[in-house]
């Protein structure tokens, strides 16, 4: 049994999609399939079943994942101990975050982190959705909901405020609305309902704005650009809206929403020095800029 085949098997097991797993492992798909078949031959069992959803683990495959992850944890501990990483503070930290938090909070602050820890490479994955911490697709995730499954370390990072905003020119032309009914002339800039990646973002029904005509996007940054270009009214986090002085909060007594960012890491990487210094830095950064939330 080839140990490198086990590594490739684990990459496919955590992803399930041959093309994506192969790209992440820096292989072509044909080579990855061949190596997994070789492992199956060596173990004399089937590790995957092919379905329309991708490669699904068999019971044997699930058991093998468990064995490999136990070994992986000990290997990471050995690497941390023997390379004296706590002094070197090097390596890669992959961080998964929502598009808004990643773009408007993390990205502007990362230059300062890099000055402190020049040998640590940070991979910021900031988009509409999150990587799977349990599958080890990322080392750290900033989530909109506290995860309840898996061997995870979780912590409340911060609460954040959301309000309804509109361009100051629209306020000047129509007057500041004092009721939901007075918003009827405006488009509602919001998410695409069936493509919302986290239920915490589905606050339109909560705010009684659903009857308005809509402009929709899966991207909070696209919504921000629509609003600052007078497309209508929409709900934004304060930490985004504050970057455009022309956007004014309206109906704050009626639409005042609070959500929470949660921090999650897998316990198997929690002891790594590079992960710990990033977590400490992130907590300090959020506390120092608490007013933006």
UniProtKB/TrEMBL annotation:
- Keywords assigned by UniProt? DNA-binding, Transcription, Transcription regulation
Q: What is the lineage of its organism?
A: Bacteria, Pseudomonadati, Pseudomonadota, Gammaproteobacteria, Alteromonadales
Where does the HTH lysR-type domain start and stop, copy by copy? 1-58
GO terms in the biological process aspect are: DNA-templated transcription
Family membership noted in the UniProt record: Belongs to the LysR transcriptional regulatory family.
Annotated protein name in UniProt: Transcriptional regulatory protein
**What molecular function terms (GO) are annotated for this protein?**
DNA-binding transcription factor activity; sequence-specific DNA binding
DNA-binding among keywords: yes
Q: Which PANTHER family does the record associate with it?
A: HTH-TYPE TRANSCRIPTIONAL REGULATOR, TRANSCRIPTIONAL REGULATORY PROTEIN
Native species of this protein?
Answer: Alteromonas naphthalenivorans
Q: Which Pfam families does the entry link to?
A: HTH_1, LysR_substrate
């Amino acid at each position: 049994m080839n140990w490198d085949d086990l590594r490739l098997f684990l990459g496919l097991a955590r992803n399930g999609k041959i093309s994506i797993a192969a790209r992440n492992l820096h292989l072509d798909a044909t080579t990855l399939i061949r190596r997994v078949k070789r492992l199956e031959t060596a173990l004399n069992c089937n590790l995957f079943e092919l379905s329309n959803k991708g490669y699904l683990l068999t019971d044997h495959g699930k058991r093998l994942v468990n064995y490999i992850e136990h070994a992986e944890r000990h290997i990471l501990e050995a690497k941390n101990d023997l390379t004296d990483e706590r002094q070197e503070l090097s390596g890669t930290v992959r961080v998964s975050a929502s598009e808004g938090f990643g773009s408007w909070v993390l990205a502007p602050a990362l230059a300062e982190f890099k000055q402190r820890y020049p040998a640590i490479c940070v991979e910021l994955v900031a988009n509409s959705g999150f990587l799977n911490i349990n599958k080890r697709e990322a080392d750290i995730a900033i989530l909109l909901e506290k995860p309840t499954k898996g061997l995870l370390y979780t912590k409340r990072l911060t609460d954040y405020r959301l309000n309804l905003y509109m361009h100051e020119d629209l306020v000047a032309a129509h007057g500041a609305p004092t009721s939901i009914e007075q918003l009827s002339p405006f488009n509602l800039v919001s998410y695409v309902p069936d493509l919302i990646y986290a239920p915490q973002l589905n606050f339109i029904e909560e705010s009684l704005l659903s009857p308005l005509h809509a402009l929709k996007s899966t991207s909070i940054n696209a919504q921000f650009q629509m609003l600052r270009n007078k497309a209508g009214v929409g709900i934004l986090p304060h930490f985004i809206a504050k970057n455009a002085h022309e956007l004014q909060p309206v109906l704050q007594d009626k639409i005042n929403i609070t959500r929470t960012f949660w921090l999650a890491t897998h316990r198997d990487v929690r002891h790594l020095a590079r992960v710990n210094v990033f977590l400490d830095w992130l907590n300090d950064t959020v506390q120092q800029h608490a007013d933006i939330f």
